[in-house]
């Protein structure tokens, strides 16, 4: 007997691929472009000439932009499609610590 799944189940070999295909289709539908250098980095040029970046690592996302409005809009769009939590400002990602000095407009990575 053979069963044909209509939806990918958590824990199956193809599940991560199916999730990525769904995410990629959704984010490209929001007019984001996938980077040629890293397939898990997406960006979109905003009307004012600034950019918004989305970095995806497994099921973690880092969103960066000068426009807080654009970040909030993207988070809202993502939360309508995917179950997610906002963990606030990033302090650590991929083993790197991130320090922000808003007063001097500096970002430091260690």
Write the layout of secondary structure elements.
Layout: H1 15-29, E1 33-34, E2 41-45, E3 51-57, E4 60-65, H2 68-81, E5 92-93, E6 96-101, E7 106-109
Antiparallel strand pairs: 1-2, 2-3, 3-4, 5-6, 6-7
How would you portray this structure in words?
This protein is an alpha+beta fold and 110 residues long. It has one domain. 26% of the residues lie in helices and 29% in strands. The protein has helices spanning 15-29, 68-81, and strands at 33-34, 41-45, 51-57, 60-65, 92-93, 96-101, 106-109. The chain has a 4-stranded antiparallel beta sheet with strand order 1-2-3-4, covered by helices on one side. Strands 5-6-7 form a 3-stranded antiparallel beta sheet, with no helix packed on it. The longest helix has 15 residues, at 15-29. The termini are far apart. The mean pLDDT is 88.
Strand content: 25-35%
Q: Major beta sheet, specifics?
A: 4 strands, antiparallel
Give the number of domains. Answer: 1
The portion of residues assigned to helices is 25-40%
Content-based structural category: alpha+beta
The count of β-strands is 7
Distance between the termini: 55 Å
Number of helices: 2
Order of helices and strands: HEEEEHEEE
Question: What's the gyration radius in Å?
Answer: 17 Å
Averaged pLDDT? 88
